[in-house]
Design a protein that fits this description.
Blueprint (H helix, E strand, L loop, with lengths): L1 H22 L5 H39 L4 H20 L5 E2 L2 E2 L1 H32 L5 H17 L1 H11 L6 H10 L1 H25 L11
Antiparallel strand pairs: 1-2
């Protein structure tokens, strides 16, 4: 039993991971065919994973409705929203427009989904402002630099801020839009590249840990 549950999955992961990694350094026809086959299997597995996640979501919300836990009414909207979009999508064959007319899917996407998305982003704006207030508390020199840079970007992106800048600091002959552009092109890009480099290194380390069997969470808690 240990062989089936532990050693065979580790061996499959090691062999597939090593072969996939080697194909990037051995550009042959065989490696290209291997990557093409693996991409097809990846799409198949992604489809099954999506269905599994969908069934898990429905099962979880069904249990909440069955037990009538706090907030179970929101679980009801999960089913209502799902079928309100899926049924018109099936009936309209996935098309939003038929000539100049909207299909059921197009109507639901335009008047339901877009409206709900706008409402969600409107609510998130309050949380973003709250988070920004906590992040911009000046407790160190680095926080002070962050606050000044953010303030300049905010002033430069708002027409009223540009008018105030021209009125107060127009004598410097330095436009706030030029400063904002420099901040976005130099410090922001540098920070973004540093974060991406860190993410890349972390991804490589995690992949190697999975390939060599050090990280085994994908095998389950048992």
């Amino acid at each position: 039993m240990t062989l089936i549950k532990k050693h065979i999955p580790l061996a499959i992961c090691f062999i597939v991971g090593l072969l996939t990694l080697s194909t990037y350094y051995i550009p042959t026809k065989a490696s290209e065919n291997y990557i093409e086959v693996m991409n097809k299997w990846e799409n198949i597995m992604a489809g099954f994973a999506f269905l599994l996640g969908l069934f898990s979501l429905f099962f979880s919300h069904y249990n909440k409705m069955k037990r009538k836990v706090d907030g179970w009414g929101y679980s009801l909207f999960v089913f209502v929203g799902f079928f309100a979009m899926v049924i018109p999508s099936v009936l309209s064959h996935g098309r939003q427009m038929v000539g100049p007319d909207l299909t059921g899917l197009g109507w639901g996407y335009r008047f339901l989904f877009n409206a709900l998305s706008g409402t969600m982003f409107s609510v998130l704006a309050f949380y973003i402002v709250s988070t920004a207030y906590r992040a911009f508390r000046i407790k160190s020199a680095q926080a002070g630099v962050l606050f000044v840079a953010a303030l300049i970007v905010i002033v430069g992106k708002v027409p009223l801020g540009q008018m105030i800048w021209e009125t107060v600091l127009g004598w410097t002959h330095v436009g706030v839009t030029d400063i904002v552009q420099w901040l976005m092109d130099v410090p922001v890009v540098a920070g973004k590249r540093g974060i991406l480099m860190g993410l890349a290194i972390g991804g490589i380390v995690t992949a190697l840990k999975i390939v060599f069997g050090i990280e085994r969470q994908y095998m389950g808690k048992d």
